[in-house]
Predict the 3D structure of the following.
Amino acid sequence: MLDSIIKFSIKNKLVIGIMTLLLIIWGVWSATKLPIDAVPDITNNQVQIITVCPTLAAQEVEQLVTFPIEQSIANIPDLEETRSISRFGLSVITVVFKEKVDIYFARQLINEKLKEAEEKIPNGIGTPELAPVSTGLGQIYEYIIHPKKGSENKYNAKDLRTMQDWIVARQLYGTPGIAEVNSFGGELKQYEVAVNPNRLKAMDISITDIFNALEKNNQNTGGAYIDKKPSAYFVRGIGLVTSLEDIKKHQCKK
């Protein structure tokens, strides 16, 4: 067999030369199309289901959240492995599919089954959510936002965090290939209501009343519209909290 190949190569030098040239061209073209990653992602084809269950112990999380979800997804096709972790206030289920399954198709299958699982989970315990399409090896870039030289006193840590959440992150989300942007550090803008237990007791008001008052008085409502040709006036009720003064105006009703 080997002698025949050698004899054919000697007698047909032109054919062998052309085939060798074509092979080189094909190899160079393939090298330009080959995806090269500095840190290859060796994670298997998986989808994670995360459920936050505040105040529940690990045993209740396993019984009321993890087990119903695992039962609902057990008959999904091309399922390779299912493993879970139940901790205090947290349930994490990792569903591993075969490599031939498209990750977005796998997430769609999981989403359909989660609708069934949510009916088995008691109300108020937690809502299962899918983790982003990324793995522990998917973090590729870190950056820091800081004021330009000479503008250090113009922007504080709260302003920089607001810029990150509302300007930089929103622009990055539109970039192809980016699945998630994690923000940390700085001062997150928020309003905190600090209650005095003694004054609440004196006025016969509970913490639940405070929560209900804040929730009911922090929303916008829409109505119909008044047609005054050529214009139309829309009826709206503005109630979203935008300042500390708005929070002070909240009233608790017994």
Summary: Residues 13-33 form the longest helix (21 residues). Residues 195 and 229 are 50 Å apart (CA to CA).
